[in-house]
Amino acid sequence: MSLDSRAVDKCSNCNGTLELRYEQGHTAVDCDSCGATRIMSAPPILVVAHDVEENPELLGTFATTQLQQTIRGFCYLCSGPVEGTVVDSSLDSETDDSGNVKVAYECTECGAPFYTAATTAVLDHPVVVSLLHDAGIDYREIPSWRITRILDSEERVNDDDPVRVEVTVTVDDELTFVLDENLDVVEYSRE
Ligand SMILES: [Zn+2]
Ligand SMILES: [Zn+2]
User: Which ligand has its closest atom nearest to the C-alpha of 114?
Assistant: First the structure.
């Protein structure tokens, strides 16, 4: 079960093209220019039951669904409890080369980690969902690789003791969130 490489979007880090392919239970989305890469697990039933040739974005909305389950505290593999953390290397500087603060949601039962960018932690915050809705965007249809681009987000580490990560989201209006070491929102403000 596989799907040949095809262009699905523009890269949020550079002006490159994101190319998606599917192989052996994994969806890979790679930028042809800056080398940004994402690999997401996706069971073959997705490719069998849906016409992903026609609609490859389905693999991205599936990945967003898994991310949502995980950030709400249920491991995407075993349903065990999940803890959010800021990846240590991210605490050493404000952002990485791609302007992201790398975070991990790790299952305390099976240990499966889910690495993503800090913006993911606020995607389903009611005020973000509402802002997207006002802009005519249904957040449930956003493929995982388009989250930071749609939210036009900026991420930075403000403090490492205690850990404070700031995420600014701009969709018409601007929202600023402050996350703690477990990626919970401790405050937000709307411009
Ligand atoms: Zn790129
Ligand atoms: Zn687990």
Answer: 2
pLDDT over 70 at 97, yes or no: no
Supply 91's token pair.
């605490």
Give distance in angstroms: CA of 71 to centre of ligand 2. Answer: 13
Q: Per the domain annotation, does 45 fall within a domain?
A: no
Give the long-range contacts of residues 107-110, CB within 8 A, separation 24 or more: 107/75, 107/77, 107/78, 107/80, 107/81, 107/82, 108/80, 108/81, 108/82, 108/83, 109/75, 109/78, 109/80, 109/81, 110/75, 110/77, 110/78, 110/80
pLDDT surpasses 70 at 155: yes
Residue 19 lies in a domain: no
Residue 31 Cα, ligand 1 centroid: separation in angstroms?
A: 5
128 lies in a domain? Answer: yes
112-128: pLDDT as tens digits = 999 999 999 999 999 99
Give the domain range for residue 130.
56-190
